[in-house]
Amino acid sequence: MAVSKSAASPLILHGRSGTRARLDGDAFVLEQGGALRRIPLSAIARVEIAGRGDRTLRVTLTAAPGDQPAHHAVRCASAPAVRAFAAALTEAVPVRDAAERQAERAARVPLERVARWRLPRLTAQTWMLVAVAGGLSLAGSLGTAAAGSSGSRL
Fold this sequence. Notes:
Order of helices and strands: EEEEEEEHHEH
Helix content: 25-40%
Shape: elongated
Strand content: 25-35%
Strand order of the largest sheet: 1-2-3-4-8
CATH class of the domain at 12-113: Mainly Beta
Structural class: alpha+beta
Transmembrane segments: 126-148
Oligomer: single chain
Number of strands: 8
Keywords: Membrane, Transmembrane, Transmembrane helix
Distance between the termini: 73 Å
CATH topology of the domain at 12-113: PH-domain like
């Protein structure tokens, strides 16, 4: 059975510190530091492999003449994964005519905050109370078990 492109799972590059990059239809999606960027493929000017051991994917966005282009990088532990993702992303980026205006593609990429569940920050006092309560509970359980095994029978 042949797998169609739409039925295939998305290609995901897992980077360091929880960074993830993926191709999603006509966009390059970058999740980094609790923020999500959905970058249209038409806004990508260049895809490069860089860094020590070719373990960094670097994506450069288009910019209006005179503006500095934005860069996004994903560091990964696997050089083959970076190469495979870069090849897929490069293939997905539309081919441009040299006369095409850069400013039309240089749209701002909106930044979304990703809601993540996190443990609440606890003070040292709270942690101490949790530890004491746990210790008392454990001591009570051990005391009950010891009393039950050595107790007298009537």
